[in-house]
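For the sake of transparency, this paper describes our internal protein records without simplification. The remainder of this section carries one protein's record, kept here as part of the documentation:
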Amino acid sequence: MKKHALPLLIDAVIVIVFCAIGRQTHEESNALAGLLKTAWPFLTGLVIGWSATFALYRDKFDATLLIPTGIVVWLSTVILGMALRVLSDQGTQFSFIMVATLFLGAFLLGWRALVPVVAKTRARS
């Protein structure tokens, strides 16, 4: 699990940054408590996505793969995050769902898409 710590940390930081940007954009108060309130549904979805992918691909699990890990983590982060926001009486306006889906997709998938490019570049050096 030690080799998966950095990718999990990268994903968690992406979720926290997304939530922090959203809170700052809407000038929300209670910085730390508010950030935790906003982030917990998405972080929960993230952990569930990681757990599901690990359980399904235990022997072949690679946290840096775009497919399946990135896709499962992205979709679970957004879908479960939004579901948990509904259950906890937090907003889920259509525009917010779209922004969350696009931002989290770009970053949760984006860094994984760059991994093979960086590996090829390093191999040539």
Remarks:
- The mean pLDDT is 93.
- Residues 94-124 form the longest helix (31 residues).
- Residues 41 and 87 are 10 Å apart (CA to CA).
- The radius of gyration is 15 Å.
